[in-house]
Amino acid sequence: MPIDFRRSWSDEDLELYRDNVVRFIETEMLPHDEEARRRGHVGHEIWRKAGALGLLCADIPEEFGGGGGDFRHEAVFYEECARRGLSGMSTSVHAIVAHYFLNHGTEEQKRNYLPRMARGELVGAIAMTEPGAGSDLQGVRTRAEKKDGGYLINGSKTFITNGFLAGVVLVVAKTDPSQGAKGTSILIVETGGCPGFRVGRVLDKIGMKAQDTSELFFDDVRVGADALLGGVEGQGFFQLMGDLPYERTIIGLSAQATMEGAYQATLDYVRDRKAFGKPIAEFQNTRFKLAEIATQIKVGRAFIDRCVEDLVAGRLDTATASMAKLWGSETQGRVVDECLQLFGGYGFMSEYMVARMYADARVQRIYGGTNEIMKEVISRAL
Ligand SMILES: Cc1cc2nc3c(=O)[nH]c(=O)nc-3n(C[C@H](O)[C@H](O)[C@H](O)COP(=O)(O)OP(=O)(O)OC[C@H]3O[C@@H](n4cnc5c(N)ncnc54)[C@H](O)[C@@H]3O)c2cc1C
User: From its phi and psi, is residue 229 left (phi > 0), alpha (psi between -120 and 50) or beta?
Assistant: First the structure.
């Protein structure tokens, strides 16, 4: 059964937009993916190219340089990359950063950063995690101390997506350590020529090899008072919580599109590959495995499409989005594993997409809030 590529939230205009996205991915991204995986990042040029074609910040209003669309436009990009096992360019983290500016930034901050992000001149990153604080963000130790009318930032961050290429980093820091969550703020750091800011290693991961994940160091980094996101101290946690449905839907959607891509590739492979004188697609085990996978894909598509519709309508709650992240990433792990098995030894070879998808899938259960934290969030809403 071929994949039914219709989405409940799509329409003719979006499918035309999808054609553009696919053209860009296939001509500009796919041919360079192997090199990017070797290097550990995709480089700046591809970001500028995507920006020039209007493919970045697609759901940011035109007045701030964005595409003027909604989440469905962003979704198209995530889906088409995930279906092809491409994980190098984290347009999702870029979009999440753009949304922090859009939803919480001052007018000046929006006008300063969003157009440059939309053009791909500034790659966005969000730096929450530290060596000593991941799930429990209240344990963040990075300090933004008020000094000379601005802030002095000291601390270190790790596992930061887009960290190596980032031109703008949103740094979660304590502005008042005595206040716990209420003493946490988000500071904007523009990395170009910023004294005291240093990018550490591009971290060596088991998957997502083309995506730059880095350590960031802040040693007496001076920023002005206008670097405080939204201009009011102590809003950090509130700002972080507001965008959780957006972030978690992206992970659920990428999981879904990865499963669809893996399924399609597996179907093609098992029809072609022969053993014991017939295509392996004809063995009952192969047919049953694919039947199970196709069923999970259909069920998953119905749920994630509903999440996308609700997100666009502004009514997706955090618990449901957490379910999309939890179920999507867990199912992705199982489905991609089953697909890989049907490739036999070739499935273990990095040159095969299914092998890369297998390695990439693992982190989906960890980042964006671990799946254990998702269960905490969901159970609190029961
Ligand atoms: C590839 C990659 C990209 C990332 N990108 C970013 C980024 O762009 N920005 C950023 O800030 N961070 C990023 N992260 C960090 C990521 O969000 C954290 O790794 C994640 O939140 C978990 O934190 P931790 O690694 O400190 O694990 P810990 O919090 O130490 O957790 C360890 C284990 O304990 C479990 N655990 C913790 N608390 C509980 C609890 N209350 N109940 C039950 N179990 C619990 C966890 O689920 C996990 O299994 C990235 C990580 C990776 C691997």
Answer: beta
